[in-house]
Fold:
Amino acid sequence: MRSLATAARTGFARGGIELRHTFTTVADLWTYLLPALLLLGTVFLMRDATVPGTDISLGARTLPSAFGMGIAFAGLITVAATLVTDREDGTLLRAKATPNGMSGYLVGKIVLVGGMTLVGFVLQIVPGVFLVDGLHVGAGGWLTLLWLVPLGFVATMPLGAVIGSLIDNPRTMGVVMAPLVGLIAISGVFYPIGAMPGWLQGVAQLFPVYWLGLGMRSVFLPDALTAAELGHSWRHLETAGVLALWAVAGLTLAPVVLRRMARRESGSAVAARREKALQRPG
Structure:
């Protein structure tokens, strides 16, 4: 128990240091600003459009949906990319070589990714409320956030770790990005899912992106907008149920895959990946 507490403290400290470091480099600052600028630009262009059958701005509907998309993106892609990069530069091997190093490493990544997601959320919501009308969070909305955000991370971060364990270099992350972009397109983030063919609606509802977007819309938008949702309801029970199923699947699979990956890590494996990277053109 004491060793786990030490690993947790070490992980929190490490995650905090890595998070602060992201505020000191241009590349990391750009990863905060670019998604916010793209989203706010998209919302601004939607300012005169309304959700079909309502007088609610399409931009007001899109902004909360994008918050949910951001959680999914952070849990799946950011976690996977971080794990892949840390394998290639030897960070993961060094964590493996220290007592409770892997536990501290994972706690640190949770702190890092959660903190980055929170910063991105603030950069989007603060100017967003000035660009669109109709966003409001009531008492029920705050209660929804208390279970939706943690459950969203638990449903996606273990899966991100699994993806990162299966990819051996950062340059193949595009293989993961392409399906995720397609999934976002059919998940009702930028336009109501009800306008899509029934089979696409069914596919979208199998994955966390749709449910996180729906949950966030229920937090920030009036109940009148359920007219544009499937079943004319925010479907909180279904949201919690689907995310919980993904969480169980991820938490069951991730430890097995991560242990297998860690066993394969060695100094020679890291050296081989570095040599291969140096031989690539450009």
Observations:
- Residues 2-279 form one domain.
